[in-house]
Design brief:
transmembrane helix, mainly alpha, globular, membrane, transmembrane, Phage_holin_4_1, about 80% helix, Holin, 6 helices
Length: about 120
């Protein structure tokens, strides 16, 4: 299989990637991991397909794609602060999901964070 397109794509996009992009992708991966651990340790009768449904995977994939596209365009047109604001919003969104999963797993979360999480639900 020829991966020259991916290498070409990466060389074009790579200059616009910075630590925000890598943190964003890491946050999504950690969210998937904590969802899986929550599923494994859950006493509720939750199906695996409810956690990792095609709908959720498409939604997250679309979010990743749109954030990367907008981040690159914002960087090209020198709207870096808007690009960082956009990606920070999604990092916070997935970060809250991680905290909810950690709370559901049983890992101790400080009480003031639990109160804030109930407000966001």
């Amino acid at each position: 299989m020829d991966f020259s397109f991916l290498i070409f794509f990466y060389t074009i996009i790579h200059p616009y990637f910075d630590s925000y992009i890598y943190l964003f992708i890491l946050t999504i991966l950690v969210d998937f991991f904590t969802d899986f651990i929550n599923f494994c340790l859950s006493t509720k009768s939750v199906k695996f397909t409810q956690i990792f449904s095609v709908k959720r995977l498409l939604k997250d994939g679309l979010v990743i794609l749109l954030v990367l596209i907008f981040y690159i365009y914002f960087s090209i047109f020198e709207f870096d602060s808007y690009a960082q604001l956009l990606i920070s919003f999604y990092i916070a969104h997935y970060g809250l999901s991680i905290l909810e999963n950690l709370n559901a797993i049983g890992i101790p979360v400080p009480e003031f964070i639990k109160k804030k999480l109930t407000k966001f639900k």
